[in-house]
Amino acid sequence: MTSMCGFEMSHYEQFYVQPQDVTSTGFTIRGQEFQHAVRVCRKRVGEWLVAVDGYGHRYQGPITAIESDRLQVSLKQLDSGFAEPQLSLTLAVALLKGNHFERVVEQGTEVGVSCFHPLITERTQVEPSLHRWQRWQEKARSAMKQCGRSVCPVIHQPMELAAFLQTLSGRLCMIADAAAENPRDLRLDSAPVVVMIGPEGGFTEA
What is the pLDDT of residues 48-93, one digit of tens each? Predict the structure, then answer.
């Protein structure tokens, strides 16, 4: 089964498991993932469950116990390094108003972005906050599960544009520009690529 973003998916819905909740013989589903499995998906003892840890590992096995706040699953199959694009793509986007950056994270995760850099520019009109950053993390995990990926993208804390530019040494960087001509044909292979998108009105002159 293949997802809309081109990744190979399991026939089972994927859940998120924290790495510290995995052992050599089983894994434990807690928190919101537990609530979703029991109350929404109506999971029962004996049913097969698939989980990913966001670091490239997928765990599968039957549910062995349902407790008041967790699911216990016996580990029967472990897959590593699957359903990820070969190209390392970083998306650096100026902070957006409302929930628009959440949509960037969701859709970027679905198409294979490996890293997000929220940017603070001269025209940025949004104040960065810990709450927003935590929401982006949740959206990335949810999108990872939905589209069948095994790695959750890294979402950095918002950074000033000038500071971010100093980190670009050795990487191909492309800037979205409405006035630009058609991009040249580029042979990307597997080299790291950075795509930068400015705020409303674009980047200011250096």
Answer: 999 999 999 999 999 999 999 999 999 999 999 777 888 889 999 9
> In angstroms, how far is CA 14 from the centroid of its own chain?
14
Its domain, for residue 66, covers: 14-80
Phi, psi of 28, rounded to the nearest 5 degrees: -125, 130
Say which residues have a Cβ less than 8 Å from residue 82's Cβ, sequence separation at least 6: 8, 56, 58, 150
DSSP designation for 20: G
- Cα(200)–Cα(44) distance, integer angstroms: 49
How many domains, in total, are found in the chain? 2
Give the residue from 26, 55, 80 where a domain finishes. 80
pLDDT digits (tens, 9 = 90+) for 140-179: 999 999 999 999 999 999 999 999 999 988 788 888 877 7
Q: Would residue 168 count as lying in a domain? A: yes
Q: Fill in the DSSP letter of residue 104.
A: H
Please give the DSSP secondary-structure letter assigned to residue 39. Answer: I
Answer yes or no: are the C-beta atoms of 149 and 10 closer than 8 Å.
no
**At 172, which CATH number?**
3.40.1280.10
